[in-house]
Design a protein that fits this description.
This protein has four helices and ten strands. The protein is of the alpha+beta class. The chain has one domain. The strands form three sheets. A five-stranded mixed sheet has the order 8-3-4-9-10. Strands 1-2-7 form a three-stranded antiparallel sheet. Strand 9 and strand 10 form a beta hairpin. The chain is globular. The N and C termini lie far apart (77 Å). About 15% of the residues have low confidence.
Length: 332
């Protein structure tokens, strides 16, 4: 017979606190492993993106016997001498917002339907120009009306999953073409120069045969995270704020899809604690950085993808940007 007077024993408060403490310790131990696993997955996806961009570049070269231009200039937005991909270009002058290299490779990454929506005879659209050097901010207002929609429909392949999603999807990319590391003008401003020792600059037509340093020793694409912060207030009164950079197709500055070796590694970082890499060009410029702990990812001209650590030697870093500098480099 059931005895209703039998005592019922439960957890004491001390036992409950001990169990909660144990669970807390286990969570604390597992959380870094979970975060590391997630970052490993994000890094793998980022590497796959770079691989796809490299394949697109190779397919473009197979078709047109040259790599895509880093960006394209046209005089007075009129149709100049057409390159083999059909995008209007001529020597032109430097102006505010040129068409960047992603336009040229769209047909080679299942983006042909997007390419035909652009009017390349008019200025591309961008929601935020974010050009610290030229102090141009806000949306582009003199673009072709047809370009508003397609300039905001960037394929996901151009986004690194580790980069913070601080802006609307489809507008800003996280990768850049290697635009050189030499001492010529393109080492400063490949978006304006007509020469470069990299793979892409303004109106460039670099061929595979010109990579005499070896395709396994020359960068093709590198990470250039789409979020960046200005440095804190300095003598010029610059204010600290977050900016979206590196638009899909708009190129006005080498921070917008054209990577340069600049002054190498080891620059002081911005005061905001962002895990950026290889912050370049003094206090206002930027060229290569990522949100991966410890380094960036890059594709090489042979189509392979490598993780480049922060500790890379300056000579190696510089030499891997040049296609014909005759340096002997070994990536870590």
């Amino acid at each position: 017979m059931f005895d209703s007077r039998r005592s019922r024993r439960g957890f004491t408060l001390v036992e409950l606190l001990v169990v909660i403490a144990i669970i807390g310790v286990l969570v604390a131990l597992l959380l870094p492993a979970v975060q590391a696993a997630r970052e490993a997955a994000r890094r793998s996806q980022c590497g796959n993106n770079l691989k796809q961009l490299a394949i697109a570049y190779h397919n473009y070269h197979d078709t047109y016997l040259q790599f895509p231009a880093g960006n394209l200039a046209a005089n007075a937005w009129s149709v100049g001498a057409n390159n083999r991909s059909g995008v209007a270009e001529n020597n032109g002058g430097f102006y505010d917002g040129m068409w960047g290299w992603p336009v040229g490779i769209l047909p080679f990454m299942e983006g042909g339907n997007l390419l035909v929506q652009f009017n390349v005879d008019q200025r591309p659209y961008v929601a935020e120009r974010s050009d610290v050097w030229f102090s141009t901010f806000g949306p582009e207002t003199t673009h072709g009306a047809q370009n508003v929609g397609p300039c905001q429909q960037m394929p996901k392949t151009f986004n690194c999953p580790s980069s913070p999603n601080t802006t609307a999807a489809g507008r800003y990319k996280d990768y850049a073409v290697n635009s050189g590391g030499g001492i010529n003008i393109s080492a400063c401003c490949p978006e304006r120069a007509l020469s470069s020792d990299g793979i892409g600059h303004k109106n460039s037509r670099i061929r595979m045969a010109e990579i005499t340093d070896g395709t396994s020793n020359t960068f093709m694409h590198l990470e250039q995270a789409s979020t960046f912060s200005e440095l804190g207030r300095g003598p010029s009164g610059t204010k600290f704020k977050w900016l979206p950079t590196n638009p899909f197709v708009w190129v006005n500055h080498h921070s917008q899809g054209m990577a340069i070796a600049a002054v190498g590694t080891g620059r002081p970082m911005p005061p905001n604690p962002i895990p950026a890499l290889m912050y370049a060009w003094g206090q206002v410029g930027r060229t290569v950085w990522s949100f991966h702990p410890g380094g960036i990812q890059a594709s090489l001209c042979d189509g392979s993808v490598r993780f480049v650590p922060n500790t890379i030697a300056q000579a190696t870093w510089h030499g891997t940007f040049t296609r014909n500098g005759q340096e002997v480099v070994t990536l870590p």
